Amino acid sequence: MIQSMTGFGKVTAELPTKKVTVEIKALNSKQLDLSTRIPSIYKEKEMQIRSRLLQTLERGKVDFAIYIEYIGKEASSQINQEAVMSYFAQLKELSDKLGISAPSSWDELQLVLRMPDVIKTDPVEVDEDEWNVVKQAIDEAIQHLCDFRIQEGAMLQKLFTQKVSNIAALLNDVEPYEKERIEKIKGRILDNLEKLAVDYDKNRFEQEMIYYIEKLDVNEEKNRLDNHLKYFLETMETGHGQGKKLGFIAQEMGREINTLGSKSNHADMQKIVVRMKDELEQIKEQVLNVL
Question: DSSP letter string over 9-42?
Answer without folding.
Answer: EEEEEEETTEEEEEEEEEE--SSEEEEEE--GGG
